[in-house]
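Crash report, auto-generated. Payload:
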Amino acid sequence: MGGRCIMANLIMFIILAVVILGSAVMCVTTTRIMRAATFMLFVLFGVAGLYFLLDYTYLGAAQISVYAGGVTMIYVFAIQLVGKRTLQGLVERVKTSRAVCGALVALVSFAVVALVLLKNEFVSKACCSADGGEVPMEVIGQSLLGSEKYQYVLPFEFISVFLLACIIGGIVVSRKEEEK
Amino acid sequence: MFDFSIVTTWFDSLLRETLGLGDFLSILIECVLVGVFILAAYAMLAIVLIFMERKVCAYFQCRLGPMRVGPWGVFQVFADVLKMLQKEIFFVDKADKLLYLVAPFLVLIASVGTFSFMPWNKGAGILDFNVGIFLLTAISSIGVVGVFLAGWGSNNKYSVVSAMRGAVQMISYEMSLCLCLITAVVLTGTMQISGIVEAQSGPFGWLVFQGHIPAIIAFIVFLVAGNAEANRGPFDLPEAESELTAGYHTEYSGMGFGFFYLAEYLNMFVIAGVATTVFLGGWMPIHIGVAGVDSFMDCIPGIVWFLGKAFLLVWVLLWIRWSFPRLRIDQILKLEWKYLMPLSLINLVLMTVIVALGWYIK
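Recovered output after restart:
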């Protein structure tokens, strides 16, 4: 889309922002853990929508497939393993002192993010570079699996070995011991 | 070959130049029109598919199927829809009402989302991203969450058990589904849907001909895994009536159940459509390298080719459903993890070797 229809982009951004913020607030305030997982799913969808708005379609697709399809499902399965009785007792009241602490932390992190954004002129740079449009799949593939400068085959392989180790660890932990 | 993009370009210029609307308004109007078209096509196809299922199933079982409503029973589905719309939607006591309401929509979103990727004709693909196939598999994975939330939101132990089974089955079979698609992408060299269809032009250009052995293996594995992914027989274990009543949608009535029902049939069509697009050339007519035959084949419109191939595959899926007995959950998981997934991994390596050595039909 580039810079052609700023109006439409702005409207889409506002809708997505409302969805993300609303779901995020609901996610932390709800007392039922399955609802929290569902609202987190909506937050992740909203973030994927932001990536699509920026023409980062690969990142958006990865966001939906990894976070929405994968991570949320893992949370849901983990919640199932905990058991209903334990979950029903998990209600916590919000204390004033905690609320104040939380507000302070939020304020400080907001200040840090705002400072970084303003100091580095990140916004104007992002606006300039976003006009390139959708990055073709070939370029992403080459840079993910290439071994030259600014290419990422080593981290990629490292992460795959790491994930393999996790899978094997999971199998070892969950394996039923044979009768002796 | 009729290029549908003539129509879309004409409509776009009509809005922009003749009517003088701005970018924002014309894009908005186009998006709304396309959305209405998708939903209309979705509903139409659902009606056709449900009627087809009932008739085909009846003939496989030596019955007549619906015969009373209208000639040859053609209005039976409309009567069913009317009945379903009138039903009361009620909630289960102490169930999580929000999740209960959200679940059918998640399943429906996944189904409509993947449905919008279908290439109907030359120049008539609706969603055509550079990451096409990858995004399609990503969107289809939303359905798993919907299935699970439906089971949980029903506050019914049978629903939860069958939702668990459904989710496990869908997650498992997604593996070989994606591996088969990757196998196809290795040959076509692109993930874009229109690019994949373009790569299958030329004499004997369909992927099953072009990629011969590995492509045929991938095609068959894709159909098996797709059947399981759509939760249809012989893998319709989440709905095993005798043990789990009606599966994760036991507690749904009216249109809540209707959405699950719609999504199930359309998922079957989407599986057939994706298999058509990736392995059987989408809207691309069959070309055999003889000019006369090729130009005759080009006279048949692309949408006829696409729908013809897709419905042929749907018919094959129905045939499988009504011919095989239902599998147990351990058999389903064994089939995937011990046979289909290793097979598709080896197949992927085979395809890569064949493409690297140039042993495919060019």
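Post-recovery validation: Residues 2 and 131 of chain A are 5 Å apart (CA to CA).
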